[in-house]
Amino acid sequence: xxxxxxxxxxxxxxxxxxxxxxxxxxxxxxxxxxxxxxxxxxxxxxxxxxxxxxxxxxxxxxxxxxxxxxxxxxxxxxxxxxxxxxxxxxxxxxxxxxxxxxxxxxxxxxxxxxxxxxxxxxxxxxxxxxxxxxxxxxxxxxxxxxxxxxxxxxxxxxxxxxxxxxxxxxxxxxxxxxxxxxxxxxxxxxxxxxxxxxxxxxxxxxxxxxxxxxxxxxxxxxxxxxxxxxxxxxxxxxxxxxxxxxxxxxxxxxxxxxxxxxxxxxxxxxxxxxxxxxxxxxxxxxxxxxxxxxxxxxxxxxxxxxxxxxxxxxxxxxxxxxxxxxxxxxxxxxxxxxxxxxxxxxxxxxxxxxxxxxxxxxxxxxxxxxxxxxxxxxxxxxxxxxxxxxxxxxxxxxxxxxxxxxxxxxxxxxxxxxxxxx
Length: 422
Fold this sequence. Notes:
14 helices, 5-stranded mixed barrel, elongated, about 425 residues, alpha/beta
């Protein structure tokens, strides 16, 4: 009996029919943790549900997502309801989610947020502590797996964009329990080399696959790196602690290579433009100097150099005449003042000035003599003081006060026996 062969499509279609007719599989309730989450541009959600031992692909179509009260993300624990069926194109079975509720956060997500807050508080993410990536590096280090798409993409991109740049691979484990320690070891080793930039990363994967780049020791190794670090972990939607602490984050390994080196074609274009601009500028300067030289050669001064001398001579004569005129004016003024002084009334009659000064002196002496207190004392008056102060009012003394009386030819100390204000 010859066997009847069927196509794979026929088999998958049959299995799908069996599963769709199973009452138990048409309505199942599952709990698990979201991983590999992806939101399609059309609104459909694709992800993996997992627990400690197994995984199950899941899809939630856009018309079902309207009931969601939260935004799903990797690491979230959820409760889902849906049907189990086969996706015929791949022959894999999956759950078609009809409803989903949040059931707390996964352990990895909690650890991620906790470490992120801790390192941010310490300042490891501060923009002012980021090192600048060299624009034109001579040598670039790469910390990633020695095989895989990541290293191929990085090397291919660098070779295409800037082939004169040297690259050094520091092969490291990028997945598994020992990966974080190995990444740290290779970052520290790279820092002993004379390199300008260090790319650290790997290709895409689940949150568990990328987890070594969320370890604290890796974050601190990147932060302490002497060499500026570009992180290149996963795909564009993936973010790790390494991305936050690195000096520059690239969405993919290919993008990291593009950020690490310039485009040699752009450099050539820039240099060609610079050469053209420099040549044009030099030619313009030369043309300007030629025009200036031609102007000098046809100038009146060069044709008749004595003309300049003649002008200067004429100017000198003018200045000399001006100085002589000023000097004569000054001397004439001095002579006039001297003549006036010599022929003044005082100079011709000096005895008049003497008599005037003498009369003025006698007048001052007479005024001083009138004001001299000794003349007052000669006429019988006295000066009375108390405590070295002149007394001009009887109210300034009282009975038994000691006063000093100054006379023309001496002083008397006296005691007041009586004070009268009459």
